[in-house]
Amino acid sequence: MRVAHSRSELRTQLLDTRGSGSDIGFVPTMGALHAGHLSLVRAARDQCETVVMSIFVNPLQFGPGEDFGAYPRREQDDVEAAEAQGVDVAFLPSVEEVHPPGRTTSIDVGELASVLEGEFRPGHFAGVATVVMTLFDLVQPDKAFFGQKDAQQLAVIRRMVRDLAVPVEIVGCPTVREEDGLALSSRNAYLSATERKRAMVLFRALTAGKDRLLEGAEVEEAEGAMWSVLSSVDGVQAEYARAVDPDTFRAPSRERVLLVVAARVGPARLIDNLLVERDE
Ligand code: AMP
C-alpha cells in the first residue's frame, strides 16, 4: 500500500493507475476505522481494480462546540487496517492540503441539507459536500462508496453528483451493526460501558417503528412509537425520530419509508436509520 500526504504525492501515486486505464474505487473516511469502514473497502475491491481510501477529519463539517478536537485520531492503526484490507493508496492529507487557507467556495444542495441532521447541525452538509467534491477532484474515482449508516449524507452526495453532473458512480453499502443492533460508529468510542448499553435504544426505536409500519400503521404512528422508545431511557436525550422518503427526506410514500433517529447518549451524538419497504 502506498501512503500519500499531499495533493502532489497522490497525483504521482495515481499516475500509473490512470495510465493503465484501471478503474478507481474511492472510500472517503474520517478514520478511527472499524468494520463498517472496512466493509466499504471490500465492496470497492470487489468492483474496482484500484482502491483509494482517504482518512481526513474534515473541519468544515463540524459546527462550533462540536467534537472536531476530540474526534478519535488513530493514524497508525488506520494505515495498518487499510493495508490489511487491501487498500492500494491511503490519502492522509493535512487540512491545508485539502482546504486552501481562506477558502470561501462551498456547495449547498438546498433543502435536503437543511432538514433533520441539517437542522441540528447547521452547515454540516455544506461541509460534507464541499470536502467530498474536493476529494473527488483530487482522486478522480470511477466509483465512490458510502455507508447507508449516514443515510442523509448519502442522499446529499447522490443529489450533488446528479445536479453537478459529477462523473462518479455513487455506491451505497449496508450498515454494519454490533450483535445487539448498535450501528458501528467511530463515536461509539466516547461511550462508557453503561452508555454503551443505553445506546442500544436507537436500534430498538427503529425496530419498534418498523414493526408498526409492517402492521399497516400510518407513518405518524410509527414516529410516535419510535419517539416513545427513544425517550424512555434515562441518560438518553432524544433529538428526532422521523419517517421520511429515502431520497428527498420529505414525507414518504406508503411503500418506501426510511426511519431515522438521532439521540445524545452521554458525550456521543448518535444517528441511525432503517429502510422499510411495504408492497401495496
Ligand atoms: P466516517 O469516517 O464516519 O465519516 O464514515 C466514513 C464512511 O463510512 C461513510 O460513508 C459512512 O457512512 C461509512 N460508515 C460509517 N459507519 C458505518 C457502518 N456502521 N456501516 C457501514 N458504513 C459505515
Mean pLDDT over the residues: 97
Largest sheet: 6 strands, parallel
Summarize the helix and strand pattern as letters: EHEHEHEHHHEHEHHHEEE
Q: For the terminal residues, how far apart are their CA atoms? A: 49 Å
Structural class: alpha/beta
Give the C-alpha Rg: 19 Å
Proportion of helical residues = 25-40%
Which shape, going by the Cα principal axes? globular
Low confidence ranges: none
Q: State the helix count.
A: 10
List the ligand species: adenosine monophosphate
Q: What is the subunit arrangement here?
A: single chain
How would you summarize the topology of this molecule?
Layout: E1 2-4, H1 7-20, E2 24-29, H2 35-47, E3 50-55, H3 75-84, E4 89-91, H4 95-98, H5 117-120, H6 124-139, E5 143-147, H7 151-163, E6 169-173, H8 193-198, H9 201-214, H10 219-230, E7 236-244, E8 256-265, E9 268-277
Parallel strand pairs: 1-4, 2-3, 2-5, 3-4, 5-6
Antiparallel strand pairs: 7-8, 8-9
Helix pairs in contact: 6-7, 9-10
This protein binds adenosine monophosphate.
Adenosine monophosphate (AMP) is lined by residues 29-30, 36-37, 39-40, 146-147, 149-150, 173, 175-176, 183-186.
Task: Describe the 3D structure.
There is one protein chain. The protein has 280 residues and is α/β, with parallel strands linked by helices. 38% of the residues lie in helices and 20% in strands. It is built from 10 helices and 9 strands. It has helices spanning 7-20, 35-47, 75-84, 95-98, 117-120, 124-139, 151-163, 193-198, 201-214, 219-230, and strands spanning 2-4, 24-29, 50-55, 89-91, 143-147, 169-173, 236-244, 256-265, 268-277. It has a 6-stranded parallel β-sheet, with helices on both faces. Helix 3 (75-84) links the parallel strand 3 (50-55) and strand 4. Helix 6 crosses helix 7 (151-163) and helix 9 (201-214) runs antiparallel to helix 10. It is globular, with a radius of gyration of 19 Å. The mean pLDDT is 97. Adenosine monophosphate is lined by residues 29-30, 36-37, 39-40, 146-147, 149-150, 173, 175-176, 183-186.
